[in-house]
Amino acid sequence: MPAPDPSGVSITELPNGGWSLLIETFMLSGRTQRKHRAKRILINLRRDGWSCQWCREPVPEWRRADAAYCCAGCRRRAARARRTDAQDGIWR
Q1: Model confidence over 6-56: pLDDT tens digits?
Q2: DSSP annotation of 90
Q3: Contact assessment for residue 8 and residue 34, using Cβ atoms and an 8 Å cutoff
């Protein structure tokens, strides 16, 4: 599956603490998918500011809407920590 268009969604933080999403749509190409992606990103932003679950940095807007980590390195570190905890008998 191809990655999302990096310029398809623009995120702006409003002064009142809210978020604004601007989606670029074309006549018949990908409107529904971009709307669904924008809705999912807005849900992430409202929940926790769409931050990485490992390092708490903001997730870049070009990442998939269901991305939980800012980069592959954070995803690998979190998986390694889960494996280590599982071997030690600690479950998260």
Answers
A1: 666 777 777 877 777 777 776 666 677 778 888 888 888 888 788 999 999
A2: -
A3: yes
Under 8 Å between Cβ of 61 and 40: no
Both tokens of 65, joined, read 């809407």
> HEC profile for 36-84?
HHHHHHHHHHHHHCCECCCCCCECCCCCCCCCCCCCHHHHHHHHHHHHH
HSE (side-chain half, CA atoms, 13 Å) at 50: 24
- The predicted model gives 73-83 an average pLDDT of 93
Lookup: tokens for 24: 């670029």
How confident is the model at residue 27, as a pLDDT?
66
* Cβ atoms within 10 Å, residue 45: 20
Give the C-alpha separation, 92 to 86, whole Å.
8
Instruction: Report the 10 Å Cβ neighbour count for 40.
Output: 14
